[in-house]
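Project outcomes to date are best conveyed with an example. Our students and postdoctoral researchers have been running inverse folding experiments weekly, and each run begins with a structure described purely in C-alpha cells. The record below, which covers 229 residues, was selected by the lab manager from last quarter's runs and is presented without edits.
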C-alpha cells in the first residue's frame, strides 16, 4: 500500500511538472513574440488547452494510470521517429512564433466569430483524441510494440487507422486561427508532412512486429480521412 501511494505521488508530480512547464513555456513564448501581455487570443488558447489537458489527466489518473505513464513518456526509440519529433517541434515553434509576431505587427485581421469557430473545431479535435485513447490503451506517445499489445479495430479504429493523428491535425491546424493568425498556418504544413512520414514508418513497424496488423490494413483502407487517405 505504501509503495502504491509512493508511485501515485511520483506520477502526480511528473504529470503536474510536465503540464505546468509546458503551459508556462508556451505562454511565455507567445507573449514574448507578441510583445504584449494583453494578447487575448493567447489567453483564450492557453486556458482552453490547459483545462482540456488537465481534465483528461485527472480522468486518466483516476481510471488508467498506466496509460497516463505512457503518455508522459516522449522518448522515441526509432531513429525515423526522432526525426519526426524534431520536425514537429520546429513546426510548432514556427506556428506559435508567427502567431505572436502577427499580433505584434497586425498582419492578420481574423473576425472574433472565426476565432470561436476555430476554438470549437480545436476542442472537437481534442475530444477525438480523448475518445481514441479511451478506446486504445496501447496508444503511447512513442512508436513501439508493447507487451500483450493487440490490434484495435473497433470504434473510431473501424473507420480510420490513425484517429489520433487525425485529432492532432484537427487541433493544431485550428490553433493558428484561434491565435488570430492566417500566416501561422504556413509552418503547420511541415507538421502535416511530418505526420505522413510518421504514419508510413509506424505502419512498417506495426506490420513487422504486431500480429494481425497487415490484415487490419486490408480491412480498414483509410489512414486519416475516410474515403480520402
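After processing, the design step wrote out the following sequence:
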Amino acid at each position: 500500500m505504501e509503495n502504491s501511494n509512493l508511485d501515485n505521488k511520483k506520477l502526480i508530480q511528473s504529470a503536474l511538472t510536465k503540464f505546468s512547464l509546458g503551459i508556462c513555456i508556451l505562454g511565455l513564448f507567445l507573449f514574448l513574440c507578441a510583445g504584449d501581455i494583453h494578447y487575448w487570443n493567447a489567453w483564450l488558447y492557453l486556458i482552453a488547452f490547459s483545462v482540456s489537458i488537465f481534465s483528461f489527466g485527472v480522468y486518466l489518473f483516476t481510471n488508467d494510470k498506466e496509460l497516463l505513464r505512457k503518455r508522459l513518456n516522449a522518448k522515441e526509440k526509432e531513429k525515423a521517429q526522432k526525426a519526426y519529433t524534431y520536425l514537429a517541434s520546429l513546426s510548432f515553434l514556427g506556428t506559435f512564433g508567427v502567431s505572436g509576431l502577427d499580433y505584434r505587427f497586425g498582419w492578420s485581421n481574423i473576425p472574433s466569430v472565426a476565432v470561436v469557430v476555430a476554438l470549437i473545431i480545436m476542442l472537437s479535435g481534442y475530444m477525438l483524441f480523448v475518445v481514441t485513447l479511451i478506446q486504445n490503451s496501447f496508444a503511447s506517445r512513442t512508436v513501439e510494440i508493447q507487451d500483450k499489445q493487440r490490434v484495435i479495430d473497433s470504434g473510431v479504429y473501424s473507420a480510420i487507422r490513425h484517429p489520433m493523428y487525425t485529432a492532432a491535425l484537427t487541433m493544431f491546424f485550428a490553433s493558428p486561427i484561434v491565435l488570430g493568425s492566417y500566416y501561422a498556418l504556413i509552418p503547420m504544413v511541415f507538421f502535416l508532412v511530418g505526420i505522413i512520414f510518421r504514419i508510413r514508418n509506424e505502419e512498417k513497424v506495426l506490420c513487422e512486429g504486431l500480429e494481425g496488423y497487415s490484415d487490419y490494413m486490408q480491412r480498414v483502407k483509410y489512414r486519416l480521412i475516410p474515403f480520402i487517405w
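The mean pLDDT is 88. Helices lie at 2-34, 40-63, 65-72, 79-105, 112-135, 163-178, 185-209, 213-219. The training component of this project remains on track.
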